[in-house]
Amino acid sequence: MSGIDTLAKAIIALGVVLVVVGLLLLLAGRVPYLGRLPGDIIYRRDNVTIYIPLATMLLLSILLTIALNLFFRR
After folding, report:
1. Alpha helices for the chain (secondary structure H)
2. Could you give the C-alpha distances from 20 to 55, 60, 61, 73, in angstroms and in order?
3. pTM of the predicted protein model
């Protein structure tokens, strides 16, 4: 296999990953309470809003860790 073949496969894999991430982002807005969990911090003042989704990030991290461990385990 030449270097061009390896590069082509890497670019195709990156494209597939981007499509999957894009679809997940489209569907994420439809998941109830995602981004509004207890533990998410919202700070509002006059014209400034700071949003820190701590609980959401923790939940997504745990779910992705479990999913990737199941997927890549052989």
Report:
1. 3-28, 54-72
2. 23, 16, 17, 20
3. 0.60
